[in-house]
Design a protein that fits this description.
Elements (H helix, E strand, L loop, with lengths): L10 E5 L1 H4 L10 H6 L1 H7 L3 E4 L3 E2 L11 E5 L6 H13 L3 E6 L9 H8 L12 E2 L22 E3 L5 E3 L14 H17 L3 E4 L19 H7 L10 H13 L6 E4 L6 H5 L9 E2 L11 H18 L4 E3 L8 H4 L3 H15 L5 E5 L70 H6 L4 H14 L8 E3 L6 E6 L3 E6 L5 E4 L3 E5 L4 E3 L2 E4 L3 E6 L4
Parallel strand pairs: 1-2, 1-13, 2-5, 5-9, 9-10, 10-11, 12-13
Antiparallel strand pairs: 3-4, 6-8, 7-8, 14-15, 15-16, 16-21, 17-20, 18-21, 19-20
Helix pairs in contact: 6-8
This protein binds 1-O-alpha-D-glucopyranosyl-D-fructose (TEU).
The site of 1-O-alpha-D-glucopyranosyl-D-fructose has 12 residues, from loops.
């Protein structure tokens, strides 16, 4: 294929399949539904879709526990549906990235069933991480590692051996020291590449290799340690060997297939390792998930992110939300305030150098749903702390104000959405917003149209402009500038050009722009 390097500035839309669109009316989103909504995504103007796991799974972690990597879970459809979705997406000019989950399988994977049926020491157990316990009778876990979802990272079998699971007990960690595991995943990647996918989002890409001897962390607060230092189960140097072999595999296919690392590293330098030229093409940049609404904080993150990417010549990525965190509209204060800030943040991130991720529903200005009834809450991360539950960002999308369940189901079916949708979401639905020129959906559509028209700002580097306190201003080449007012007051500054797009009312008089509170403006500066 031609070397377009399409991924360096691609806008990639995250489809959380279960909650995007329901094709068969059972109340659970599926591949048929996603396929039916491809025209929406093409019209929105994104370059690619990332589909979260739709493989055979008992759904202990809603698909991040895979029982068969080469098949589709019946709740999401069939392999034929996956093929049709990939082909249709390509016809719409959209690339398709699928999730691959190599750190762990489901406990219902055939390999784990074999491991359970085997005796301690058997080869079938060598595909996972089994160890004898500590203590006089082996009654204590082999080490002090804690699961990300809370509690010990080890579960004991009746025969006395323990197995490692960095996440839920239903997600046993694979043993990447075993060549059989390498070979199996290479074959899984080939399976999907042969079906035509354009790349993989690699789940827990920093976790596959554990430190030799599985040493204790030896720190009372492991969660803090994970952010601050290298722990024996994350970001081990050995993972890069795997990533390099996957890159060689991707490069052996035509058409620039890509890998995106979901990697958490304790420093920007260590994160940059994941996007060295012979490793993954991108790594998620999670900084904005934790950046407070403050101009200096945002500027610092942009600078550090761009510098990190430059270290190894990779594009930066920009992420405001995903299926694991509270939606940013709510993080930014919720309500009208949260919406104003979200609209400004969209124009900011869509004008920065690099690739931008859009999590389904952020283009509609969806808030986190904070009052889901208890009986619907099944996210395993709630074991760690009920506050950490990830259900509220996974509520199905509203498509049509006047249809049952806001049109989540494309066919009139009997099923209610698997998570209830707030009654107030009618005006947030796609059809309502398409009719309103000032809607958040139309802001995204217009921003993406301009981004494409300007050929993504021609790869131009970012240059900061002087601007008043509480604001950001930068240029991308000669033709484009962006200003962001992160204060709750109007701010005046010299207009850098003519307004292309604004997230809120902005006026220009005698060369002076009056920026609305919590707003962003795109400026054309080429005098046209
Ligand atoms: O997430 C990995 C991960 O580290 C998350 O646990 C994250 O830190 C946390 O959810 C933030 O709130 C990936 C997937 O994105 C997630 O959905 C899965 O649960 C997890 O892997 C296990 O596969």
């Amino acid at each position: 294929g031609t070397a377009t390097r399409w991924w360096r500035d691609a806008v990639i839309y995250q489809v959380y399949v279960r909650s995007f669109a329901d094709g068969n009316g059972d109340g659970v989103g599926d591949l048929l539904g996603a396929r039916g909504r491809l025209p929406y995504l093409a019209d929105l103007g994104v370059d690619a879709v990332w589909l979260t796991p739709f493989f055979t799974s008992p759904m202990a972690d809603f698909g991040y526990d895979v029982a068969d990597y080469r098949d589709v879970d019946p709740i999401f459809g069939s392999l034929a549906d996956a093929r049709a979705l990939i082909d249709d997406a390509h016809r719409h000019g959209l690339r398709v990235i699928v999730d691959v989950v190599p750190n762990h399988t489901s406990d219902r994977h055939a390999w784990f069933a074999e491991a359970l049926a085997a005796c301690p020491g058997d080869a079938a157990r060598e595909r996972y991480i089994f160890r004898p316990g500590r203590g006089a009778a082996g009654e204590l876990p082999p080490n002090d590692w804690e699961s990300i979802f809370g509690g010990p990272a080890w579960t004991r079998l009746p025969d006395g051996e323990w197995y490692l699971h960095l996440f839920a007990p239903q997600q046993p960690d694979l043993n990447w020291e075993n060549p059989e595991v390498h070979a199996e995943f290479e074959s899984i990647l080939r399976f999907w590449l042969d079906l035509g996918v354009d790349g993989f989002r690699v789940d827990v890409a920093h976790g596959m290799v554990k430190a030799e001897g599985l040493p204790d962390v030896g720190h009372p607060d492991q969660v803090k340690m994970i952010g601050a230092d290298v722990v024996p189960f994350f970001d081990q140097d050995g993972v890069h060997e795997i990533h390099r072999s996957w890159r060689r595999l991707l490069d052996s296919y035509p058409g620039e297939r890509i890998g995106v690392a979901e990697a958490w590293a304790p420093s920007p330098q260590r994160l940059a390792n994941y996007v060295r030229p012979d490793e993954m093409h991108q790594a998620f940049n999670f900084h904005f998930l934790k950046t407070p609404w403050d101009a200096d904080a945002f500027r610092a993150v942009v600078q550090e992110s761009l510098a990190t990417a430059d270290l190894v010549g990779a594009p930066s990525t920009w992420v405001l939300s995903n299926h694991d965190v509270k939606r940013h509209l709510t993080r930014y204060g919720g309500g009208e305030l949260g919406l104003r800030r979200s609209r400004a943040a969209a124009l900011l991130t869509l004008s920065l150098p690099g690739s931008a991720y859009v999590y389904q529903g952020e283009e509609l200005g969806l808030p986190e749903v904070l009052d889901l009834p208890e009986e619907f809450l099944h996210d395993p991360q709630r074991h760690r702390n009920p506050e950490d539950g990830r259900d509220g960002c996974r509520v199905p999308l509203p498509w049509a104000a006047d249809e049952p369940h806001f049109g989540f189901s494309l066919l009139p079916g009997t099923g209610s959405p698997w998570l209830p949708m707030p009654a107030s979401w009618g005006p947030l639905s796609v059809d309502s917003q398409l009719r309103d020129p000032l809607s958040t959906l139309n802001l995204y559509r217009e921003a993406l149209r301009i981004r494409r028209e300007r050929r993504r700002f021609d790869d131009a580097p970012l240059t900061w402009l002087d601007s008043p306190e509480g604001t950001l201003a930068f240029r991308r080449g000669d033709g484009f500038a962006c200003t962001v007012n992160l204060t709750g007051e109007p701010v005046a500054l010299p207009a850098p050009g003519r307004i292309l797009l604004a997230s809120a009312g902005t006026t220009v008089e005698d060369g002076l722009a009056r920026l609305a509170p919590d707003s962003a403006v795109w400026w054309g500066t080429d005098g046209a």
